[in-house]
Design a protein that fits this description.
- By secondary structure, the protein is α+β, with helices and mostly antiparallel strands.
- Helix content is 21%, strand content 26%.
- The chain has one helix at 36-48, and strands spanning 4-8, 15-20, 23-27.
- A hairpin with a 2-residue loop joins strand 2 (15-20) and strand 3 (23-27).
- It is globular and about 30 Å long.
């Protein structure tokens, strides 16, 4: 499964917002330092999509 995720950093509230099929916006508190924001995005998406963390294979960012 391939999905597009737009990440909003330093958000007041963490949440996952469904935009359209295969496209989400994830808001996280963490800064983009040492992969902390990426890890939190994966955790929130896994919970939102009811998937275990080990299902997440290749994650890329820009």
């Amino acid at each position: 499964m391939k999905i597009q995720v737009d990440v909003k950093l330093h958000a007041k509230a963490e949440e996952v917002v469904f935009v359209k099929e295969g496209h989400y916006i994830v808001k996280v508190h963490q800064p983009p330092v040492d992969g902390k924001a990426n890890q939190r995005v994966i955790e929130l998406l896994a919970k939102h999509l009811c998937m275990y963390l080990y299902f997440w294979g290749h994650v890329t960012g820009s």
